[in-house]
Design brief:
alpha/beta; Rossmann fold; Hypothetical protein af1432; Molybdopterin biosynthesis moea protein, domain 2; five-stranded parallel sheet; 16 helices; elongated
Length: about 400
Amino acid sequence: MNFSDGLLSRAPADTPPILLVDDEVAILDGLRRQLRKRFTVHTANSGAEALELLESESVAVVVSDMRMPQMDGATFLSRVRSLYPNVVRILLTGQADTQAAITAVNEGQIYRFLTKPCPPEVLVEEIGSAVELNRLVTAEKELLGTTLRRTVEALMATLSLAQPAAFGRAVRVTRTVTELAEALQVEEPWDLEVTAMLSHLGAVTLPPDVLAKLDSGRPLTEEEAEMAGRVPEISRDLVATIPRLEGVAEAIGCQRARFDGTGSAPRMPSGDDLPLAARILRVAVDFDAGMSQRPSAQATISALRADPGAYDPRVLEALVSCHDASETPAPPQDVDVLHLEPGMVVFDDVLTSEGVLLISRGTVVTDALSLRLENYARQNRVGRRIRVQV
């Protein structure tokens, strides 16, 4: 084969990457020749070699032989499923391995199994279908990671303008939820963080004086407590209308349920049946409320521990680990509004000259927030110095 023939036989640069795994080199060479015009083909001679390759190469589909030494195809593809869930998996089997392949499919580990010898046109078609499935799964992830994230950001930006106190609480609670998720080693905490942020949407229905009481930890009247008690339900109903956030809405609706189930409404889950996001959110919300009434994190945690049935013990212990008594936060600094930088955290409530809450404590500085403060400072409606934690 001359140089020009080699160029013509190679896959275009934008072809989907796939990985072929077989312990027989001759079979891999034959499969590569069949597939290289449609796909970017990587190969490996064992499951261990393939796993090592996947650490550095992204692929859409893995095709593995069933019978291989040390690690058979079903075991290898099960590892791939655990480590790289978006990668679509195909198993090649001989007739004698059919029952094992059916078992692997039924356990949800394999997308397709194909018996050998597999006609080239069938193999190309099945891999093409698997590539398309990978594309759809990836697009779904991107939807959740971009479109929904921007929707949430827009909703929270609106809340920050309409109810700064509620937005400040949402930011503080979300920060605690993020810390708890890290302590609990939650792999994908995005759902938990979204739950925390959106759980405060219903606060737009509360009068400002009620929000001020909640923010400062002052006691509520019976009527005010009833208003505040409806916020989770209102937030749940608002979020339930957003596609793909049904699980978030459920967790918001369950956030006040006790872990031990006492006093809960009929059919309300308890214990480990409660969504993890709801269990974490309850701890974070109560911790934030307690911090407005008590002198330290340790005092607040002691108060939560006094009612152990309300909380998941693992989440409560994660909170303890996040607030080691030996840790001392950096002291706040006074910064001119012109020198605020994104990521700084507002230490004190920022009030206008008329006494109206403009920015709640705990709010993370953004470019938009800096511009807002600059505009108010130019009108002499807020002081030029803002206390922040860096």
